[in-house]
Design goal:
By secondary structure, the chain is α+β, with helices and mostly antiparallel strands. The protein contains 5 helices and 8 strands, in the order ββαααβββαβαββ. The chain has an 8-stranded mixed β-sheet, with helices on both faces.
């Protein structure tokens, strides 16, 4: 499969470089994830997620890179990681291979089209993969811009899951589960 490794232009003209993550990205990617987690009220995280180490991050990157049904892309602006998207696919031998999708972007780069670019790249990759049959994701019900992005890409609402409280405890609503048949 073709490697993802090129520049894209955002809505306001910024150039971002999107590529597959490497183990050497572990520390910076962890820092970026922590930044967008702590500045967004719409990300679903657990206490374990907040205690990740660079070694944990390195192992996560390695596990995704070693799984032919998984992909981790990072977006860089001026050499700094500003966002990522990951597709964690089930192993090849599963009867109905599915993938879980997750994305995060630093606040300063949201609303500029980066999410659409990252999502399109992952969806194109998943369709070319020919193993995965269904993609799933979870999104905080109050995050309407993300829900709209996923609906536009062809995802449908599968259902709601219990009440989730945002990290900063300012919002509490259902977790929306969305799926896409490939």
């Amino acid at each position: 499969m073709k490697e993802i490794n090129q520049y894209y232009t955002l809505k306001r003209g910024e150039q971002v470089f999107i590529r597959e993550a490497k183990s050497s990205d572990s520390a910076e990617l962890l820092e970026t994830i922590r930044e967008y987690v702590f500045t967004s009220k719409y990300l679903l995280v657990s206490a374990d997620d907040l205690e990740q180490t660079v070694a944990d991050q390195r192992e996560w990157i390695r596990s995704l890179n070693d799984n032919p049904n998984s992909l981790l892309l990072i977006a860089e602006h001026e050499g700094k990681i500003i966002g990522n998207i990951d597709l964690t696919g089930s192993m090849e031998f599963d009867e109905n291979p599915t993938g879980m999708l997750s994305m995060g972007i630093l606040k300063a780069y949201q609303g500029k089209g980066l999410g659409s670019i990252l999502l399109k790249l992952v969806l194109d990759w998943a369709r070319a993969n020919h193993q995965l049959k269904v993609l799933c994701l979870q999104v905080f019900q109050g995050n309407q811009s993300a829900i709209n992005l996923y609906l536009k890409a062809g995802f449908t609402v599968f259902g709601q899951q219990g009440t989730t409280t945002s990290l900063d405890a300012t919002d509490s609503s259902n977790n929306t589960i969305m799926t896409l048949n490939l």
